[in-house]
Amino acid sequence: MELCTFEINLTNKEIAFVFSDSDLKRPHKKATTVSFDKVVADMINVNYNSIREITDKLEVKIADGKEVNDPISAELYSIMFSSENAIERIIASVVEYYHLETKKQMNKSLKIKSWEKAIKAYHQNLYKEIDKSKAFVANGFQFDKYHAFDMTVSFDKNRPARVILKDSFRQFIDIFTYMVYLKDLHIFTCKNCGAKYLAVADMDYCTAPECLEEREKAKRRTKRQSRKYDPFVRPLDNFHEYARGRKREMMLAGATEEELAAFEELHKKHADYIRGSLDAFKNKGELPDDEFFQICSSYKKELKARADYVINRRKKNHKD
Ligand SMILES: [Zn+2]
Fold first, then answer.
1. Residue 197 within a domain
2. Does one domain contain both 64 and 144?
């Protein structure tokens, strides 16, 4: 019987689940792939009230001396197949697994009192494990403070292993946290959306598309900042900016394509020289000297003279 199987992909940091109601004649199967980050978020946000209502009902049924019945299974399957929260789906599957196994055993023995006790103990332990796992994640996986991993499956580090989850929620948590430990992942909080995410080092942002975009923006900001103060870049940026200003004036005055192209040619020639000089200074490990800055300023004057000439000509043409 397989209600929940999963494969962990350590490279992509995701888990591929298959949920199935395999005890029925025509099993319904649903596959879903969940990122490690989503597992962490779901562990924190898990709301098991609806499952608790079901397990409470299950206990009452047993106490009434009746067998556990199918409507309860149907409720668990509905959570297993349609909850947005992966942890809730897993919990529903382990409860149902236990429930089905119990049902089989009960057919053999009718000592209701002892079943009642066993089921109660199972549920109590389950909710204790869920609460423990919630606290564990909230504390950022403090491995030393948590119990040792209870590994019943062996793993090849580089290959996904298929695990059949039976009635133990703890088994899933142990395997997942062991993977987190293997990959040396830690929990961080996204600067943009506040979500928790797993990473080897603090990346400031999680991997949601809008947060990655924010991260790129921040990167560009820092790059601009450092460029602004880089002595081997700033004089060239400054020269380009100056040339752009003069070109705008020429365009406003109605300069022709040819006049603009000739201006651009001059701009490019001087910019190449400035870039080459800056590289040479950088390679020598020296800061640009006075002579260099005098050359830059003479180049600017040259550009200005060219632009002024064109602008005056356009003005004259306009008057004629
Ligand atoms: Zn985010």
1. no
2. yes
Question: 211 CA distance to ligand 1 centroid (A)?
Answer: 5
| Token pair of 318 as six digits | 């306009």
Residue 173: which of 144, 194, 152, 201 has the closest Cα? 152
Å from CA of 192 to ligand 1 middle: 5
What's the predicted TM-score (pTM) here?
0.67
Percent helix, percent strand, percent coil in the chain, to nearest 5: 65, 10, 25
pLDDT tens per residue across all 320 residues of the chain = 789 999 988 888 899 999 998 766 788 899 999 999 999 999 989 998 989 998 888 887 776 766 666 788 889 999 999 999 999 999 999 999 998 888 888 777 667 778 888 889 999 999 999 998 888 888 877 765 445 555 555 555 555 578 889 999 988 988 888 888 878 888 899 999 998 899 888 889 998 899 999 999 999 988 888 877 889 999 999 999 999 999 999 999 999 999 999 999 999 999 999 999 999 999 998 999 999 999 999 999 999 999 999 999 888 876 66
Q: Is there a domain that residue 119 lies in?
A: yes
Q: Is residue 234 part of a domain?
A: yes
One domain for residues 171 and 23: yes
- Asked which of 148, 182, 216 is the last residue of a domain, the reply is 182
- Find the 212 Cα to ligand 1 centroid distance in Å: 8
C-alpha of residue 208 to centroid of ligand 1, in Å:
5
What distance in angstroms lies between residue 157's CA and the mean position of ligand 1's atoms? 28
Residue 55's H or E segment, with its range, is helix 49-63
Give the residue numbers spanning the domain of 288: 230-315
- Sequence-separated (6 or more) residues with CB below 8 Å from residue 312: none
Output the CA 204–ligand 1 centroid distance in Å. Answer: 9
On whether both 98 and 171 belong to a single domain, the answer is yes
Q: How many domains does the chain have?
A: 2
Residue 125 forms part of a structural domain: yes
**Rounded to whole angstroms, how far apart are CA atoms 148 and 34?**
25
